[in-house]
Amino acid sequence: MKQDIREFAPTYESLAALYQAIRSIGSTLDLEEVLNQVIQAAVDLVDAEWGFIVWEPEEGTAVRACAVLSPEDIDDPALDLALCATEAHTGQTPASRPYIVLPLWSPEGTICALYVDRSPDQEPFSEADLKSLEAFAGQAAVAVQKAHAFEEAKTTEANFGSRMAHDLRLPVTSLRGYADMLLKEAVGPLTDMQRQFLSIIHANTYYLETLTYNLSDMAKIDHERMPLNLGRISLKDSVDEVLDKLGPKIEEEEQTLALDLPTLPDVTADKARLTQLVRTLIENAHLYTPAGGKITVTAQEQDGFVRLTVTDTGIGISLEDQETRLFKKFFRADDSVVQEQRGGGNNLYVAKRLVELMGGEMGAESEPEKGSTFWFTLPVATSE
Prior knowledge:
Number of helices: 11
CATH architecture of the largest domain: 2-Layer Sandwich
CATH class of the largest domain: Alpha Beta
Radius of gyration: 30 Å
Shape: elongated
CATH superfamily of the largest domain: GAF domain
């Protein structure tokens, strides 16, 4: 960059402008944001009227960033000039608009170029403008390259997590299916010992299947690829569905279950994910509350949201864990009761992120040896 600057013997003002332009980029690793920063800084640097960055991957041309104008305003001559840019140069379009076009860094097999121009009644770009923009583009290319590498890394990581979860889920689901058939004596009667062994296999495959689903959910959430089918959903229906399955287990532990679910408006949520949220909170209350304890499930409408609260009289959570570890990945309290339960410690992390993705909030209050209260809110469904 120093050599480029010396070539056009910059003034103090042009150096200051170049410095300011370089400072304005690279504050983020989001590729789209970096490209927008670059084109806006380029337009400001050479006092252009507008500009754009074109990025042509193998599957077709795409205008990735614009300053002042919108993509549909770009005419074909300007687009062609950008796509044909093999080196930095200045000139005039057929419509007598002064322009500068130059290539940016781009991955193999793509074209990435920056284009700026002025109205016909403005001064043509000078050689100093061209050199200044070249110097800026050298630094901009570094920021673009870093952001692109980060984007590629995120995609690779997300695909790896999802692929691993998928590859694990298929054999585990198959094992559980065969264990189900054998337990139902579909292929013949079982001895007591065979039934006992198969029950253990069935329980362990269900546990593994749950872990793979959590792994998949974490990968999707962390990389903003969690699909949600939002609609008008009854929170009470989700609670009823969960209690149909967990109710017998709660009774086995002689735990008292108290419900206070008044008539509530529907919420905006993904039905399957809402059921997953409710199950996480009620199942945790059941697992970490001793026999004879109490679990209370309440719901109420407040300020355009419906709030579900699950309170237990269980082991509770230390203040330190509440402040530093709760709702984080792989959180498992050091309490022996918690360690006896199998799990990856990601259920609450996934639950909180799902609530946030659906427009709500999630929180907790707890006191060791006295119990915990977990709650989440979801927006009331509107007529739209």
